[in-house]
Amino acid sequence: MKKIASAIIASLLVISALAACDKDESAADKKTLVMATSADYPPFEYVDTANSDEIVGFDVDLAKALGKKLGYKIKVEDKDFSGLITALKTKQADLVLAGMTPTPKRKKNVDFSDVYYKANDMIVTKKDSNIKSVEDLKGGKIGVQLGSIQEDAAKELQKNTAFDIETRNRIPELVQDVQNGRFQAAIIEDTVAQGFLKKHQELQGFNIKTSDDEAGSAIAFPKNSDLTPKFNKALNEMKDSGELDKLIIKWFGADSK
Ligand code: ARG
After folding, report:
1. What angle is formed at CA 50 by the lines to CA 46 and CA 56, rounded to 5 degrees?
2. Contact assessment for residue 252 and residue 191, using Cβ atoms and an 8 Å cutoff
3. 153 partner at 20 to 30 Å CA-CA among 3, 17, 31, 249?
4. Are residues 77 and 149 located together in one domain of the fold?
């Protein structure tokens, strides 16, 4: 009897020692989280090439603020937008902040936080293009970012207006192809489009209503990640305290609220 008891105690000790070891290791792992993004999206995420090669922007500040509250460091990695969901699924990234909209299609593959910022779509054209409405896109070639909800929006518009759709990996490529006339227009989120319009005087834009009524941004996580509820709680704290509004004003300007 004694022998059995001490054998049980011994094995319990071994098991708890192993468990402790395990815990320590994962705690160390979790101190730095990899945030994947597509750094082609000012003011959400971009490289301010004049100043450094670091990725900066609203999403980066938000992730770091949330990480700070929860005890995580955030390491930012740049990828094409269309590869971000895969990065989460293959555990190359712990979270994605990329102005990403929580669509039903994406929700099949990843989990999302609540929405932290809302936006609308804009048609960007050249000022001398005579394109003033969606109908004017007829017969033209329209550019959208690969894998974005703007690609879906373009397909939706195509049902009523005949035009061609072409995709690009990066937003500046879309803008460039509007400038050089390869595209008659591009569909880009308004907050991002505004920045490009300011920079390129020959371009103009107008907002469109898309069928997608929740064109907002949310944080994406691998399915069933224990980070999702933690980050969501911290996000809602930032909403309540006004910290989120401060970041919005910092990156989108005082009238963006
Ligand atoms: N909100 C849009 C979407 O979810 C576009 C986001 C593009 N983001 C970027 N970093 N390029 O599809």
Report:
1. 25
2. yes
3. 249
4. no
Is the CB of residue 41 below 6 angstroms from any atom belonging to ligand 1?
Answer: yes
Residues 109 and 223 in one domain: yes
Q: Does residue 4 lie within any of the structural domains?
A: no
pLDDT band at 209 (very low <50, low <70, confident <90, very high): confident
- Distance from the CA of 7 to the center of ligand 1, in angstroms? 58
**Cis peptide bond prior to 43, omega within 30° of 0:** yes
pLDDT for 64 equals: 98
Average pLDDT over residues 167-177: 98
Residues 105-129 as b or e (16 or more Cβ within 10 Å = b): ebeeebbbbeebbebebbbbbbeeb
pLDDT single digits (tens) 10-64: 555 555 555 544 444 444 555 999 999 999 999 999 998 888 899 999 999 999 9
What is the rounded CA–CA span in Å between residue 162 and residue 160? 7
**Given a cut of 90, is residue 227 above it in pLDDT?**
yes
Which atom in ligand 1 lies closest to the alpha carbon of residue 100?
A: 4
How far, in Å, is the centroid of ligand 1 from the Cα of 149? 7
Which residue's CA is minimally distant from atom 12 of ligand 1? 148
Looking from the CA of 179 toward its CB, the CA atoms found within 13 Å total 12
Q: Does any ligand 1 atom lie closer than 6 A to the CB of residue 46? A: no
Q: How far out from the chain centre does Cα 206 lie?
A: 23
